[in-house]
Design brief:
482 residues; elongated; two-stranded parallel sheet; 21% strand; alpha/beta; Monooxygenase
């Protein structure tokens, strides 16, 4: 009896299990059918919240946590996110201490940085990019926000790779840049359109092909041009040009064609107001004397020389009628000579005369500011030059141009109208008092004290008449100007 009951129970359990398995299978099939129906009718089903639906303030808060690479990817995704990413870029990488730039920063693209950093570096003032992909993406997304671009330290091995960056800069930044600095690029094919807003161009060892500077930068007001010696494409009239700097690159030499191009540039641009020349490698005072008749509108002249022979001039005095500021930087090196025509070089012993300031072969009618810096001691040549410029009212001497008490009396007699003097040498309290007595119209005097403890004595003696500010140099300004 018990055995018959066990068989019956087992049969019922087996039937229940089969029924349960069938239900699970049918349920699974039903679930699959519903899922297929949802997929087929996906367009009719409302979607969830998209990132573009987020409140703009919340979205900006989220994007502030992204680095530059991720921010570029966001800007690349769609137009709405690009506009938000631009705001984040200006906040994080804009120059906060320069309101005139409206948050714009300087972009630096350097080939040398490829082996020194990853994608980018930011120092609070300039954004340095070293990765080609990042360069292209950045210029495409944020190029219209840039005012200044620097392409520097480029070697010939990578200049072709970075040629595409130049094309992007011309396309996306060309209508917005104010300043551009380029070193070591061939620009003959990269730039298809001119930079209409660029006012300052700094060009070092660049090739231009048949493109002239007046086509590339039609509204430029200041050009710094350094070349190996050819100076091609500068021999055009640039109507807005006011400031020009020219110099020959290291190991270069001014060619005959380069001299002709420079002469033509000066002849076609008589409106120049400021000229700076780095003398050397064929760029000398003889050439300046030849072109001086074309640039009589100059108001500011700056000359730099490292060899005494580059500043020698045996002909007549070079005359400028309108120059008001003259800056002479003579950090002269020891002359070198070749031994028996070989490549062996030896130093010549500098004599006492070689340490003296050489003759200054210039004459000015309206000179007001004379600034001399160098490693030469003052000489009678300096006093001879000063005596011919009685209109000077601002004297500035740096480095080894030390003026003694005796010499101060000479200068005071030659320049009675001097109102401002900056001598970056150390003087005693007695010498300072002597200088203040000699120059009757002096309103400002800058110098360094031999004994810093004398500063309190100086304030006690002159504090009622002069405002005295300590620092690298002591700056004294007369309270009531004369």
């Amino acid at each position: 009896m018990e055995m018959a009951y066990d068989k019956c129970s087992a049969h019922n359990q087996s039937q229940d299990f089969v029924a349960f398995s069938g239900k699970r299978k049918s349920q699974r099939l039903e679930n699959q059918r519903i899922k297929r129906q949802k997929i087929e009718n996906a367009d009719d089903v409302p979607t969830g919240t998209k990132i573009t639906d987020i409140n703009p303030d919340c979205l900006e808060h989220i994007l502030m946590y992204l680095n530059l690479g991720d921010l570029l990817n966001v800007a690349d995704s769609n137009k709405y996110l690009k506009s938000v990413a631009e705001e984040i870029y200006v906040r994080k990488y804009g120059r906060k201490n320069a309101p005139e730039y409206c948050g714009k920063t300087i972009l630096e693209i350097s080939a040398i940085s490829l082996c020194r950093m990853r994608n980018y570096e930011f120092d609070g003032y300039s954004l340095k990019l070293g990765d080609l992909k990042t360069c292209l993406q950045f210029v495409r997304c944020f190029g219209h926000l840039l005012h200044d671009i620097i392409l520097d330290n480029v070697t010939s091995s990578v200049s072709n790779v970075y040629g595409r960056t130049l094309i992007y800069i011309n396309e996306y930044c060309g209508d917005h840049l104010w300043f551009i600095r380029i070193k070591g690029f061939d620009l003959s094919t990269a730039f298809k359109k001119p930079f209409l807003k660029v006012t300052v161009a700094n060009l070092i060892d660049c090739g231009f092909g048949k493109k002239s500077l007046n086509w590339l930068f039609p509204n430029v007001t200041s050009i710094s041009y350094k070349s190996h010696g050819k100076f091609l494409n500068i021999d055009k009239h640039m109507p807005m040009l006011k400031c020009l700097y020219i110099g020959v690159s290291q190991c270069g030499k001014l060619s005959n064609s380069g001299k002709k191009a420079i002469e033509k540039a000066f002849r076609l641009n008589p409106q120049l107001k400021r000229l700076e020349i780095n003398l050397g490698a064929g760029l000398n005072l003889q050439l300046l004397s030849k072109v001086s008749k074309y640039i009589q509108s100059l108001e500011d002249l700056m000359l730099k020389a490292t060899l005494k022979k580059d500043f020698c001039f045996a002909n007549d005095t070079i005359y400028f009628k309108s120059v008001e500021s003259f800056y002479l930087n003579l950090k002269l090196e020891k002359d070198l000579k070749t031994i028996n025509g070989s490549n062996d070089i030896q130093n010549l012993n500098q004599t006492e005369d070689e340490l003296l300031l050489p003759n200054i072969p210039f004459a000015f009618d309206r000179l007001k500011h004379l600034k001399i810096r160098g490693n030469c001691r003052y000489s009678d040549q300096l006093f001879s030059f000063i005596s011919k410029c009685p209109t000077i009212n601002f004297l500035q001497f740096w480095d080894y141009i030390f003026i003694s008490k005796t010499d101060v009396a000479k200068i005071a007699a030659m320049l009675p109208a001097v109102k401002k003097i900056l001598f970056y040498e150390r003087y005693s309290l007695e010498e300072v008092c002597h200088y203040l007595t000699e120059f009757k119209l002096l309103n400002e005097f800058g110098f360094r004290l031999k004994n810093e403890d004398d500063l309190d004595v100086l304030r006690t003696r002159f504090g009622h008449e002069w405002q005295i500010s300590p620092g690298f140099c002591v700056d004294m300004k007369r309270s009531v100007r004369r």
